[in-house]
Design a protein that fits this description.
It contains 7 helices and 12 strands. By secondary structure, the chain is of the alpha+beta class. Strand 10 and strand 11 form a beta hairpin.
Length: about 300
């Protein structure tokens, strides 16, 4: 999960959001198209709404389809074409012509390429002024931001930032000598990745390993910084926190999601339970990282212009 702060002055209604997304519904790639991005039904029911409003939370789904021709195939066919040109004309194609040959081959083979689909769920909590995605990488999250800004003019989004960086906080938690030095809602689990900032970028990965040890503390004191640390929250959920503040491998403990049914209302129940869990988890995590960092608004220019302006 990646969290973004929505600007305080920006508003949109559910109807406006549905209408905006509907203009960019997902359409599968055409034979000659290598990528298609659009919005699809989060519930998975054809021709359904593109925004599901459940318990005051808005759920969206971005669909991404890509087609790619293997590079090895392109290179082999391009080499064959270039050798054929050399054999018949006695000249070797230059860089520009070779590039055009490769492009022609890609366009010719693209209709035969298999399409790969992926999706990203998007969660708007307008009361908390937060937008979350379940993107596992910055690239996927950037796809969401680009798609949202395209359909929602003026949408101001900034990555949620905390006073203490996740990496600095994780280092402190790994150096802790007792549970009393850890944030009250969280426990350090048995996985972490430590990486050196030096040129060699030495890395140590601990898996199913007790981390409250002198061995781990020694690595941190020697300058290896945590890039990922497994944590649990109030005995309800586990996740790995990254140095950029992304929550990966989010999982609920046994019994937490048992209230969800197996009927058509399961989607609603899953959303209610998930948002009801992840919202407080994120709040506690921000508190554990020293609170949210707030940036001062840029000073607004005077209507009369700056004092030293020749037009004042």
């Amino acid at each position: 999960m990646m969290a973004y702060r929505i600007g305080a002055d920006w508003t949109v209604t559910l109807t406006q959001l549905e209408e905006a997304l509907n203009r960019y519904r997902f359409v599968e790639c055409s034979p000659s198209q290598d990528k298609s991005v659009g919005w699809t039904e989060p519930r998975g029911q054809a021709h359904g709404p593109l925004v599901e409003s459940i318990g005051g939370h808005w759920i969206l789904k971005l669909q991404i389809e890509t087609k790619a021709v293997p590079g090895s195939v392109v290179r082999r066919k391009a080499d064959d074409r270039i050798q054929e040109i050399e054999a018949t004309t006695g000249r070797k194609p230059g860089k520009k012509e070779s590039s055009e040959i490769r492009e022609d081959i890609v366009h010719a083979l693209l209709p035969l390429a298999f399409a790969k689909q992926s999706s990203v769920m998007v969660w708007f909590d307008m009361d908390a002024r937060l937008m979350m995605t379940d993107a596992a990488s910055q690239g996927k999250s950037d796809e969401v931001i680009t798609a949202l800004v395209r359909v929602l003019e003026g949408l101001p989004l900034t990555l949620l930032q905390t006073t203490t960086s996740p990496q600095a906080a994780m280092s402190q938690w790994l150096l802790a000598q007792s549970d009393g030095e850890l944030p009250p809602a969280f426990s350090v689990e048995r996985e972490c990745v430590l990486k050196s900032g030096s040129e060699d970028q030495a890395m140590v990965k601990f898996t199913r390993h007790l981390l409250a040890t002198d061995e781990v503390r020694k690595h941190v004191l020697e300058g290896k910084l945590p890039t990922q640390l497994a944590l649990s929250w109030e005995g309800k959920a586990s996740f790995s926190l990254t140095e950029t503040g992304v929550l990966k491998k989010v999982a609920y403990f046994d019994g937490v999601m048992d209230a969800t049914g197996d009927n058509e209302d399961k989607f609603d129940a899953d959303v209610i339970l998930s948002t009801g869990m992840l919202g407080p988890l994120l709040t506690d995590l921000v508190d554990a990282l020293g609170g949210e960092m707030h940036f001062a608004a840029a000073p607004q220019p005077s209507p009369e212009g700056p004092k030293d302006s020749p037009f004042a």
